[in-house]
Amino acid sequence: MPPEPQQFASDNYAGICPEAWAAMEAANRGSVPAYGEDPWTKRAADAFRTLFETDAAEVFFAFNGTAANALALASLCQSYHSVICSASAHVETDECGAPEFFSNGSKLLVVASPDGKLNPALIRSVATGRSDIHFPKPRVVTITQPTETGQLYSLAEIGAIAETCRELGLRLHMDGARFANACASLGCSPAEMTWKAGVDLLCFGGTKNGMAAGEAILFFEPALAEDFGYRCKQAGQLASKMRFLSAPWVGVLEGGAWLAHAAHANACARRLAAAVADVPTFTLMFPVEANAVFLRAAPEHLEALRARGWRFYTFIGGGARFMFAWDSDPARIDALADDIRALSQRAA
Ligand SMILES: *Cc1c(COP(=O)(O)O)cnc(C)c1O
């Protein structure tokens, strides 16, 4: 089949990056033990411990982010607990109830916030609003870094949230489906953005970073990981040929490709945002801090853009979402920007 022109509707439209592909190819030579008892899986877990500058982290691999988030949250909760999240959180809007399902009913406490981010005051108000037996006991806060609309929590913001969590007896989980993009953008180390700031548990996205499939779950406090392997197996997340989930991590982590790819994707988002900044009919909905650009436009303009062959989703806030990945082609981005500009001029 001939390749279709590149689209930016989602960062998981992208293919597999060369580093992940090469590692899978290498892992495909010969046979090794199954179910994660293989050298690739050990090497990938060690690569995470090196990257995160801690020998203590326990690392698990799941097929996708929904499973990683849902099982991670379930591991922190009893069924009568609750999880504080933002209204736009993927765990609330895009996981079909998986966190509630895998936790046997732990309730998500959804917080509306002006910028889609949680903060200590919001967390405190939800966590302390009720303390009676009739309300599910708050147990975890989950934040998405970067958020679903491409904003970042600064290290100071994460630290302040973690401090509030500690004070209130809550655990802090980070949905890092685009964790690499956040690291590249903030220019901080993975350790600084997680355990050094007080994050207990991280889901680190591989798929949107350039892998075929796979997310890593990192427990920074080993005791929290107790029996987590059983949870993964029961949920159908223990890959028998685990090396094909783990080897790609070796490929992207050891040589630094994870960060370079994310930096490229972020730069692509800035490129589109800059190219259309002065187009009056398409306006930026959110600050561009990672690999996402959201543009608000009249429905007829969005339709006209689609008619020119561009694909995009409008499920967040009604605007057009463009997401960039390791393979985003700057020439295609410029073509998109040109089409946006041309539509605008036609309307004028
Ligand atoms: C993509 C994404 C996930 C993972 O989604 P899956 O389709 O289950 O892999 C999780 N959280 C966020 C914020 C995402 O954007």
Which properties best describe this structure?
PyrdxlP-dep_Trfase; 14 helices; alpha/beta; 348 residues; Aspartate Aminotransferase, domain 1; Aspartate Aminotransferase, domain 2; three-stranded antiparallel sheet
Task: Provide an overview of this structure.
The chain has 14 helices and ten strands. Helices cover 42% and strands 15% of the residues. The protein is α/β, with parallel strands linked by helices and 348 residues long. It has a seven-stranded mixed β-sheet, with helices on both faces. The radius of gyration is 20 Å and the shape is globular. Bound molecules: pyridoxal-5'-phosphate. Pyridoxal-5'-phosphate binds next to helix 3. InterPro entries: ArAA_b-elim_lyase/Thr_aldolase (IPR001597), Low_specificity_L-TA_bact (IPR026273), PyrdxlP-dep_Trfase (IPR015424), PyrdxlP-dep_Trfase_major (IPR015421), PyrdxlP-dep_Trfase_small (IPR015422).
